[in-house]
């Protein structure tokens, strides 16, 4: 199947699963975001998708937690900053896969945004595990890869 641009697809009432690169710089002492350039870079695509009537599930990694949950690398501050920049609520989930994630995704309405937890909290991400990729893919009707800075990595959320 040919790869399409996000502008080639009817997004109305669709759930879009979008891989973004929110691997932002954090202050080592406070954990605050020191550079939100990568979040800002994704805004045009995010706004386009939402303006076309889709709901949006975002996924990204942050740092190198090596398959373990590292509290300083949770996506909470990213969700807060994205919400400020978008001017709308971004619901941050505490996982990427599982029944609770599916329940929250199923409740999404057009124009609503979910940010999944750090994909690298799962070792399956960096191992490009096909089952993990399948579980992620099941969350959306359409997949958009906006994480060009990570496109060279064979990870489940980008190539799986």
What is the total number of structural domains? Answer: 1
Distance, first to last CA = 15 Å
How much strand? 15-25%
CATH topology heading: Rossmann fold
How many DSSP E strands? 7
Q: Helicity, in percent?
A: 25-40%
Coarse shape? globular
Catalytic activity: (2R)-3-phosphoglycerate + ATP = (2R)-3-phospho-glyceroyl phosphate + ADP
Family: Belongs to the phosphoglycerate kinase family.
Enzyme class: transferase
EC number: 2.7.2.3
What do you see in this structure?
GO terms for molecular function: ADP binding; ATP binding; phosphoglycerate kinase activity. It catalyses: (2R)-3-phosphoglycerate + ATP = (2R)-3-phospho-glyceroyl phosphate + ADP. With 160 residues, the chain is α/β, with parallel strands linked by helices. It has one domain (10-150): Rossmann fold (3-Layer(aba) Sandwich). 29% of the residues lie in helices and 16% in strands. Strands 5-6-4-1-7 form a five-stranded parallel beta sheet, with helices on one face. Strands 2-3 form a two-stranded antiparallel sheet. Helix 1 packs across helix 2. The chain is globular. The two termini are 15 Å apart.
């Amino acid at each position: 199947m040919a790869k399409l641009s996000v502008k080639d697809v009817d997004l109305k009432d669709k759930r879009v699963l979008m891989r973004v690169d929110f691997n932002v710089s954090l202050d080592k002492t406070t954990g605050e975001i020191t550079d939100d350039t990568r979040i800002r870079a994704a805004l045009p695509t995010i706004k386009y998708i939402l303006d076309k009537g889709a709901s949006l599930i975002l996924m990204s990694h942050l740092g190198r937690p090596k398959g373990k949950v590292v509290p300083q690398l949770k996506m909470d501050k990213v969700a807060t900053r994205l919400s400020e920049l978008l001017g709308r609520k971004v619901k941050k989930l505490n996982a990427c896969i599982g029944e609770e994630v599916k329940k929250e995704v199923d409740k999404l309405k057009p124009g609503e945004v979910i940010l999944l937890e750090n994909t690298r909290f799962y070792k399956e991400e960096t191992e490009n595990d096909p089952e993990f990729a399948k579980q992620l893919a099941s969350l959306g009707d359409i997949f958009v890869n906006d994480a060009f800075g990570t496109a060279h990595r064979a990870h489940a959320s980008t190539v799986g």
